[in-house]
Amino acid sequence: MRVLVVEDEPALSLRLQRALEAAGFAVDVAHDGEDGWHLGETEPYDAIVLDLGLPRIDGVTVLKRWRDAGRSAPVLILTARGRWSEKMAGFDAGADDYMTKPFELDEVIYRVRALIRRAAGHAQPELSCGPLRLDSNAGRVTREGAPVPLTAQEFRILSYLMHHPGRVVSRTELMEHVYDRHFDADSNVLEVLLGRIRRKIGAELIRTVRGQGYRLTDRPDDA
Q1: Pairwise CA distance, residues 104 & 101, whole Å
Q2: CB 90 within 8 A of CB 63
Q3: Residue 13 sits in a domain of what CATH number?
Q4: Which of 7, 104, 187, 209 is most buried when burial is the number of CB atoms within 10 A of its CB?
Q5: Structural domain count, the chain
Q6: What is d(CA 140, CA 106) in angstroms, rounded to the nearest whole number?
Q7: Which residues pair with 106 in a beta bridge?
Q8: pLDDT tens-digit map of 40-75
């Protein structure tokens, strides 16, 4: 899953980036509202962590522009402002959740995970598809109760497919949601990693749909 962090405090943005990456997310960072607005406008993100007190363009304006343009990625607002009127301004602009500084990094991670699940239509932290179970809070995958050992990149790929079971996901979409903007789009690493995942969970669970992409199925006999 891919997350954008828009935060102008260098130390805090670095802490957020490292914490989210350690939790299994691909992370892009912007340090002002203009750069953040541009990335949110042009790149697909599964969630956005947005500070309100940004230079160049303030966070509420950035969020309004995204929503006016039809950008629907869930947004978690971070701010040092604690007044209810300021929180209301963020929600009125289209925010999905709100945290006041200072905060615990673990709570940010849990809230981001919950936003992503709900945006994909999942209410519970455990996702399932056939014999597979993914605990999004623990970052753990099992097949028929047995742990499936996955690398961080493998987990991101399988997690995205499990958030969208039964749907054909194109190669481009998958790459855009599991890698940051600096990833080499011409690399064949995605196919290599999918091959490894298939060997670990069962090749029959991830179908290649010729000319379209990949589909995670709960029906191994479904071609």
Answers
A1: 9
A2: yes
A3: 3.40.50.2300
A4: 7
A5: 2
A6: 17
A7: none
A8: 999 999 999 999 989 999 999 999 999 999 999 999
